[in-house]
Amino acid sequence: MKVIAIDIGATNLRVALFENNSKINEIKVKTPRDDPNSISKSIIKMINELSPNRDFQSIGIGTIGPLNLKKGIIELAPNLGLKNIPLRDPLVNEFHKDVYIANDAMAAVWAEKILGDAKNKNDLVYITMSSGIGVGAIIDGNLIVGRRGNSHEMGHSLVKFDSNLVCGCGKIGHWEAYAGGKNIPKVAKEFANEWKGKESEGYFLAKENNLTPEKLYDLARKNDEFSKSLVDFLNIIHAAGISNIIAAYDPEVIYIGGSIYLYNEDLIKPYLIKYIPMFSALGVPEIKMCTFGDDQVLYGAASIAINPPSQIKKFNL
């Protein structure tokens, strides 16, 4: 069985051909941002390169959002400066195949259920810790989708109600506002303004608004006092956000991916296990790194094409 898997990110657009549950070939380009139709045009071109005979069964898409699955579109892509991006109709019209669309984190959790570690589990959550915080959930064996496909935005759950820190969505106190990678330099600068300890390399970078996630975790490993303290603060924020997930979904296992976690699990996971009990009355579920690493969303898109959940299929009727 052959399927096409598509991962639409704010930076890269990836299209892959899968056969018998494995990736055979892939094309990656920078995500087009010329106009709303440029993405589907690029996808069509890439699919034709990967499968000139068009002998695949279906197409799965894991994408940034928010989405409107009733219309088969990305409703808004602020990092691309685009809105109302058509996906389903252009691809159906071109290839006459079923096209299934999901948010990227939703696709990622389905990857664990269909192709990954969670084949025999019915209550699981996927979290991405990257430029933002994304969440996908399967509860009682059912993928949680919502009326338009946006029921998974737990990165915008509240972790500090009296915060002055504004999230990218425009609201205050959100998990992503503190711990999303794109916000870490701003958080680091505020942290530095209140810092009473040693003025280390991390401190000076933070004061200049230049302490990136990569540099932060690198310096923490080198025992930079400021960076270690900030990482500890971020782990408490993550623990608070994950406790919201535990309260909402009661998962058996939580899989975590995204670049921040994949490359820094040693500085994050032990402290999640330490701090979650401060907030969660339901204990700490098993926490594991996601199965497919940087390919998690791509495998998620393939999983949706191979075995589309009924909660996604209903939007194609």
TrEMBL record:
SUPFAM superfamilies: Actin-like ATPase domain (SSF53067). Gene3D superfamilies: 3.30.420.40. The keyword Transferase applies. Transmembrane segments: none annotated. CDD domains: ASKHA_NBD_ROK_ApGLK-like. Keywords: Kinase, Transferase. GO terms for molecular function: N-acylmannosamine kinase activity; UDP-N-acetylglucosamine 2-epimerase activity. Pfam families: ROK. The keyword Kinase applies. PANTHER family: BIFUNCTIONAL UDP-N-ACETYLGLUCOSAMINE 2-EPIMERASE_N-ACETYLMANNOSAMINE KINASE (PTHR18964:SF149), ROK (REPRESSOR, ORF, KINASE) FAMILY (PTHR18964). This is Transcriptional regulator/sugar kinase.
